[in-house]
């Protein structure tokens, strides 16, 4: 709201409450006595004294007239004071209205800001919740993938152990078979050697 400027009228001082009539009465003095005083004490002639008195009287009257032109009456002063009171009351009312309007606007802006902050807070909570849910889902998927890979690795390890056991069993069977063949060969060689020795003993015995 734009407040219109008010022109504050100057307040007339108490000295200006004097009327022109009272001020003009100040200049009424005994010119004849003043002329005689100039003649007796100043050595003026009658014509010089009258001329000097006329000049002084005119100067005083002109000065007082110049002052009285700027004086106002009591009624004018009262009217001016009343108008100033009205202007100040109007200005005060507009300032109060402006303050109330600005306070209302400020309160409304504060409520809007509070609403925006609340909405922003809720959006942040939703975003954080979504992010946490996404992270949990990714973690669960990664855990599942790790379990699956771990199961596959365990199966491969078990298969490897099984193959190793089978190879060991095969090697043990082969070793036993070789042992049996060696034993049979040794027995056969021993029997042939013994039979040969018996034949040699009989031949040369």
From TrEMBL:
Residues 103-130 form a coiled coil. It is a single-pass membrane protein. Pfam families: CCDC90-like (PF07798). It is found in: Membrane; Mitochondrion. Its main location: membrane. Keywords: Coiled coil, Membrane, Mitochondrion, Transit peptide, Transmembrane, Transmembrane helix. The chain crosses the membrane at residues 182-204. GO terms for biological process: mitochondrial respiratory chain complex IV assembly. One of its GO terms (cellular component) is mitochondrion. Gene3D superfamilies: 1.20.5.340. It comes from the Eukaryota. Belongs to the CCDC90 family. This is Protein FMP32, mitochondrial. It comes from Debaryomyces fabryi.
């Amino acid at each position: 709201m734009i407040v219109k400027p008010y022109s504050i009228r100057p307040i007339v001082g108490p000295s200006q409450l004097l009327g022109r009539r009272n001020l003009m009465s100040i200049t009424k003095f005994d010119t004849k006595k003043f002329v005689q005083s100039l003649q007796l004490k100043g050595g003026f002639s009658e014509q010089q004294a009258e001329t000097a008195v006329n000049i002084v009287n005119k100067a005083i009257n002109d000065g007082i007239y110049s002052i009285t032109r700027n004086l106002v009456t009591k009624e004018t002063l009262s009217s001016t004071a009343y108008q100033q009171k009205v202007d100040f009351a109007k200005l005060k009312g507009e300032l109060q209205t402006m303050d109330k309007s600005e306070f209302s606007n400020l309160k409304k802006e504060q409520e809007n800001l509070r609403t925006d902050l609340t909405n922003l807070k809720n959006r942040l909570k939703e975003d954080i919740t979504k992010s946490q849910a996404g992270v949990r889902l990714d973690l669960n998927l990664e855990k599942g993938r790790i379990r699956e890979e771990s199961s596959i690795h365990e199966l491969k390890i078990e298969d490897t152990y099984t193959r190793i056991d089978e190879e060991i069993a095969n090697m043990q069977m082969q070793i036993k078979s070789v042992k049996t063949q060696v034993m049979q060969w040794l027995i056969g060689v021993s029997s042939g050697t013994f039979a040969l020795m018996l034949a040699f003993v009989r031949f040369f015995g």
